[in-house]
Amino acid sequence: MDQTTLDKIMALRKELHTSAEPSGEERKTKEILERFLRENTTLRLADKGKWFFAAHEEGDFLPNIAFRADMDALTLPSGEASHLCGHDGHSATLAGLGLLLEGKTLGKNIFLLFQHAEETGLGGADCRPFIMENKIDEIYAYHNIPGWPEGSVLLRPGTFACSSRGMTVRFEGRPSHAAYPEAGINPAFAAAALIAALPGLLTSEQYRGMVLSTLVGAEIGSKSFGTAAGKAEVYLTLRAWHEEDLDKLQSTIESISRQAAERDGAEVSFAFCEEFPETVNDESCLCKVADACAKLGLKTEAPPEPFRWSEDFGHYLKDAKGAMYGIGDGTEYPQLHTEDFSFNDRIIATAVGVFEALVRQK
């Protein structure tokens, strides 16, 4: 890749960075990317509303290989959006691959998928039909990862990123005058019983791998000193290396909650959000990434465990073979989702290079 092309990709990344939009609202981001591809390539663009894909097509009955990037930014407490996870870099990198496809005969069809709403887990689920509709044989993606040597490629067999979901446990009691608490049903004690039980749920032999139940918040009653609480909610993030373990953990929490509610005469219900599947790499596809890195002379690393964060790329891997890998931002680079983070432009050449090497593989 020549310097002019690299400069063009970096300029696109900076434009995306200044146009950050939250999950599900990536209108300007999508327009910028579509305009860039229209002006610089002859790829066919397929607009799907909140997301789109670009296609380099050489004919029927050829392998269909896809590459995916996410477009959304994080929503800050202020309500503004900011690219604190690197999705601006992912999208610029994928658009950069589009530049390198021009005029090439590859013996395959290449699809570039630009996905919305990764941070909430909704985008991958929305885009999942893309795999079957376009008969995708393989799909690839990467994530930039701080804490690892800059430009190194992180290859993890099996589970690359955890499954997770947000869980709300709602206890419904009956409020009463604070002077007569015995006349009501205060759900605070059921909520407290659940919270107290959480640390003991993580070491059971029933799990194949790591599980986590992280308490992220709770609400009990209100600051009204004349009224005993009648409602309580507990907010949890459940996380596991394997989806089957996540389901077991959820079932255990539901059972504990029901027992605590029944003991006190309260009602309990459950709600879920931001659900992410496990991201499990196909062995043959990961080997192709390793071969691409070898041809480029890139250093590779083998993370000893799955990354604890989640990625909705796992949705695609339920319908097609594929792999997700990491590219190191640097051992001292600011962590993802922090105010000091910004995508490291020095890894763009590596990221585009691996994509191109995968495209060229026979």
TrEMBL record:
InterPro entries associated with the record: Amidohydrolase, Bact_exopeptidase_dim_dom, Peptidase_M20, Peptidase_M20_dimer
Presence of the UniProt keyword Nucleotide-binding in the record: no
Keyword Coiled coil: no
Gene Ontology MF term list: hydrolase activity
EC number: 3.-.-.-
Keywords: Hydrolase
Gene3D superfamilies (alphabetical): 3.30.70.360, Zn peptidases
Residue ranges annotated for the Peptidase M20 dimerisation domain, each copy included: 164-263
Name the record gives this protein: Putative hydrolase YxeP
Originating gene: yxeP_4
